[in-house]
What we know:
By secondary structure, this protein is of the alpha+beta class. It is built from six helices and ten strands. The chain is globular and about 50 Å long.
Amino acid sequence: xxxxxxxxxxxxxxxxxxxxxxxxxxxxxxxxxxxxxxxxxxxxxxxxxxxxxxxxxxxxxxxxxxxxxxxxxxxxxxxxxxxxxxxxxxxxxxxxxxxxxxxxxxxxxxxxxxxxxxxxxxxxxxxxxxxxxxxxxxxxxxxxxxxxxxxxxxxxxxxxxxxxxxxxxxxxxxxxxxxxxxxxxxxxxxxxxxxxxxxxxxxxxxxxxxxxxxxxxxxxxxxxxxxxxxxxxxxxxxxxxxxxxxxxxxxxxxx
Length: 255
Ligand SMILES: Nc1nc2c(c(=O)[nH]1)N[C@H]1C(S)=C(S)[C@@H](COP(=O)(O)O)O[C@H]1N2
Ligand SMILES: [Mo]
């Protein structure tokens, strides 16, 4: 996979130069009134998305590793023990009462138990998790592939994004995330219920977390409670498609 990596590095170098040319440091916050600068940055983000899809391909796999590469201590980040009452009640009962709700623009809304999820087409993968903070860990994940599950519930033609609603609250807001249908139907996009050969621990998102392997860690929603197919995420929470996106991170976090 050297070729895409080269392309990617060159691309990011180009984008970084673009941001510098605009006189923006990494930590500069854009005010809502800086709409022209915002538009340039947003078009740069779209460029990242489309160039990556062009260079790397819509279904190319993220690199997979060997058992020997698995990190001895996978860092738990963000929420690692939700203190939300409803989550705690579910955890106390070992998630026996937990159901994954699937709704929105689907033909057959569903509520699935963990048992039912485990019976769906699954995939195991050893991948590297890259956090935007600059650390990486390698872990082994097993879960239900999102694509077949979406086919089972039947997406309506207007559906363009899949939104994941989580059970944890960070500074007063529930965590949530979204991906487009290219990533949703990618073979490595799984709803993971196992990590490193055992049941997914609470610290890593029990009972179910998203693995989307060609994007940064913040896209990998932990503590998933509900999935919704939508035409647009403009009216959800802050309107930018995710908890961290609403606070300034890019919606497309390709790596
Ligand atoms: N529900 C939820 N999902 C989340 C987060 C969170 O705080 N809450 N943090 C994100 C971030 S920034 C990272 S790097 C990864 C961390 O996953 P880990 O704890 O398995 O390392 O989860 C992501 N998904
Ligand atoms: Mo992260």
